[in-house]
């Protein structure tokens, strides 16, 4: 049986750091170049944050995650990603004046449907990213030996 809590902690820290980094980069683009980067690029941070827990899994257990383990961890990581983004949205609401209008649109039935579909896409993407990154780490470990 795997220990979920350490992997979840690694994912949470990675997700927070990468999401804040993406927000800062987007704001720099907006302020300096007047470019509004696509919002979907923030999803990349959520998926890329899977690298470090996957590497930790491979280093700790020296095997690929089973399908059940990968789906379970994907569910946990997706819930963490939702919580991180909700918390950062509240913070941004206090900092950025235009954020209230964006959040109001997301609270509509259509917005909630889009968020639900996005959560499912993230869930599946994290599952396969976790397996891929764990396999990549295992190959690197085998190459060192």
Task: Write a structural description.
The protein is mostly helical and 145 residues long. It has six helices and no strands. Helix 3 packs across helix 6. It is elongated, with a radius of gyration of 17 Å. The model has no long low-confidence stretch (mean pLDDT 89).
Helices, strands, pairings?
Blueprint: H1 4-33, H2 41-48, H3 51-61, H4 67-95, H5 99-106, H6 109-144
Descriptive tags:
145 residues, single chain, mainly alpha, 6 helices
Largest sheet: none
In angstroms, what is the radius of gyration? Answer: 17 Å
Number of helices: 6
Structural class: mainly alpha
Beta-strand percentage? Answer: under 5%
**Average pLDDT taken over every residue:** 89
Distance between the termini: 26 Å
List SSEs in N-to-C order.
Answer: HHHHHH
What is the helix content?
A: over 70%
Uncertain runs = none
Number of strands: 0
Tell me the overall shape: elongated
Short description:
The protein contains six helices and no strands. The protein has helices spanning 4-33, 41-48, 51-61, 67-95, 99-106, 109-144. Helix 1 (4-33) runs antiparallel to helix 2 (41-48) and helix 2 (41-48) packs across helix 6 (109-144).
């Amino acid at each position: 049986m795997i220990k979920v809590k350490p992997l979840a902690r690694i994912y949470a820290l990675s997700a927070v750091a990468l999401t804040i980094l993406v927000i800062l980069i987007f704001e720099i683009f907006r302020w300096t170049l007047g470019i509004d980067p696509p919002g979907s690029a923030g999803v990349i941070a959520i998926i890329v944050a899977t690298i470090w827990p996957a590497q930790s899994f491979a280093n700790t257990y020296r095997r690929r995650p089973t399908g059940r383990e990968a789906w379970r961890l994907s569910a946990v990581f997706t819930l963490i990603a939702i919580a991180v983004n909700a918390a950062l949205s509240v913070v941004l609401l206090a900092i950025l004046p235009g954020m209230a209008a964006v959040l109001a649109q997301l609270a509509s039935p259509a917005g909630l449907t889009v968020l639900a579909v996005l959560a499912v896409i993230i869930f599946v993407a994290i599952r396969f990213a976790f397996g891929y990154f764990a396999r990549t780490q295992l190959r690197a470990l085998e190459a060192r030996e």
